Amino acid sequence: MQGQRSAGEQNNLEREQREKGHTVSNRTTLILRHGRPLLLDTPHTVEYNAGMELRGKVAVVTGASMGIGEAIARIFAVHGASVTLLSRDTARAEAARLRIGFPDRTMALSCDVRHSEEIDRVLALTLDHFQRVDIWVNNAGHGLYDSVAQVNMAACRDLFETNFFGALAAMQAVIPVMRRQGGGTIIDISSVAGHIPLPFSATYSASKFALNAIGKAARVELKNDHIHLLTVCPGSVETAFGQNAVRGNDLKKVRPNSMRGITAEQVARATMQGYLKQKREVIVPWTLHLPVKLYQLFPAIIERAMERMVNRES
């Protein structure tokens, strides 16, 4: 059954833990999936340290086989964290882990965040290996280029399954763990497109608007549990994101020709600083604060600029 181990699987896990010298008497029900408990073995003896340093922390990063996810995993590991790298493709996740180094503090696992049972599995494996999860980074996602009039609905639903529902499912899985530990941090890698809707990428923008809303609401809901929510909104980033995006039939570029993207490493550094300083939101590069604020106060100015770029492409 989804989200629940069979009796045989549970017995096998107990046997493996006894062989490792772990106790199994402290099993606690931590996660509920549609009313079905997932049993995880997290030692009660581990004392949670709520400090905002990275050394000694345990982080899980989705979409970590390349780009922003790999860069975040690397900078966290460099600063002393243990990191689980997740990707749909196990081989690519393992290749990223080897590039990062720190083999004693990193682990690569396959996970498709569209399937909640896979999230439960990697969470259980991380807890078994590292004993806790201090930081969960929702980075998995992809783009979809097409107009509102012509976008394929199946492609749109698949986009939301990864970009939004996958992140929400991960939050629902890890929140009970963090509550039991006494705290933690969830980091949502969103986009400036979650503040300013992009023509011909409207569905992608919609998924990021939704992610921003969930994170900001959850921050208030979870404050008394000492669980912090950080939303990171990069602008254009020089990664393979555009190459991997789903392309529809109606494609137009809405971006100034002179605009250069930032690097994944810049986003990773901004993410780490946002975590260390317990910020609510990070917009990177900082120069994009102006258009975001302009759109909030005077949307017509930004819309006219985007209209000119659309007309230039026509």
Termini Cα gap: 52 Å
CATH topology of the largest domain: Rossmann fold
The CATH architecture name of the largest domain reads: 3-Layer(aba) Sandwich
CATH top level class name of the largest domain: Alpha Beta
* Range of helix content: 40-55%
Q: Helical region count?
A: 10
Strand content: 15-25%
Mean pLDDT: 84
Output the helix-strand order: HEEEHEHEHEEHEHEHEHEHH
Order of neighbouring strands in the sheet with most strands: 5-4-3-6-8-9-11
CATH superfamily annotation of the largest domain? NAD(P)-binding Rossmann-like Domain
- Structural class designation: alpha/beta
- What's the alpha carbon Rg, rounded to whole Å? 20 Å
Structural account:
- There is one protein chain.
- The protein folds into two domains: 41 residues, no CATH class; 268 residues, Rossmann fold (3-Layer(aba) Sandwich), CATH 3.40.50.720.
- Helix 6 links the parallel strand 8 and strand 9.
- The protein is globular.
- It starts with 6 loop residues before the first helix and ends with a helix.
- The strands form three sheets. The protein has a seven-stranded parallel beta sheet with strand order 5-4-3-6-8-9-11, with helices on both faces.
- It is α/β, with parallel strands linked by helices.
